[in-house]
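Side project, low priority. Logging it here so it doesn't get lost.
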Amino acid sequence: MSNHASKRRGTDSSYDDLSFSIKRWLSSDGNLTRLFVIMVLVFVTMAILSPRTFLSLDSFSSMAFQFPVLGILSLAMMLSMISGGIDLSIVGIANLTSILAAMVMVRLIPEGASAGTSLLYIAVGIVCAMIVGILCGLLNGFAVAKIGIPPILVTLGSMQMFMGLAIVITKGQAIVGLPEQFSAIGNGSVVGIPMPLIIFILCIGAAYLLLNRRPFGMKLQLLGSNPTASRYGGIRNTTVLLKTYALSGLLASIAGLVMIALTNSAKADYGTSYILQAILVVVLGGVNPNGGFGKIAGVVMAVLTLQFLSSGLNALHVGNFFKDFIWGIVLILVMVINVVSPRMKWKRKPAG
């Protein structure tokens, strides 16, 4: 065989390996491939309907500041769903913890404080918010794992409890006047990259390592797939659930901190629409609502898809009430597709 033919075969082999790698990354029963196509179609459709507004630099900059809050909340929802449960309290945790952080920063920082003193109180407020978020998550996990209450009922009740507690603390009023150093977290940039986006990327990296490079990820997926088999396999289901809901609470608190940094204020009813949107993102991203399976890449693409759709609808001057209607329709359609698609594939399989 000639050297030319050998090199050509080697090149073809490398190309085939690369093609296989891309296909393997995009394909998870077709979920990632389908989601990638949907994301591109939504982007192209909105670009055609409103090219000047949607494709402007200001629009993309605004998106980069907006979607990280939903993205972090979706990661929190993803963890609970992989375990076979759900966490409806993430927005309640986000608001409660952010209000506590805002109170520390606004009411404890003395007038005329130096930059170093302000940063110290800001750090104390952030740490307090994260600790309270973990404790709220542990409360949910204890009720689910130890008492045995269904997750949807536990987190529905705790959502009302956390939001009610936030209203009592603030008396329904907004906390304003956050320090400028803290507001920079929501409105500042590093080498042109918005700070909220950087925080979201860090959360993605941490979640990826946790689910794919640590034993906890395997235990969580086994628990979500079959709790009985997981228990007989030597996995402490209670410990895994406690860790899962604690991490969900931690991520919710981080989302709450980014949210108040963006708005420079804290209030008990911020972001209530994020609950439905987070569920939509997770389901659209290919996470099994029954537990046991989910990929970070799918959730990220789903967040971008919803942000493209939301920004495009805003450019077309579509009202918020109609957008809520669209979110509900999309959620139902995605769940129907996820249920029907495997059945169609099973019917198409040749017998024998």
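Brief comment: The chain has one domain: 63-336.
Revisit when time allows.
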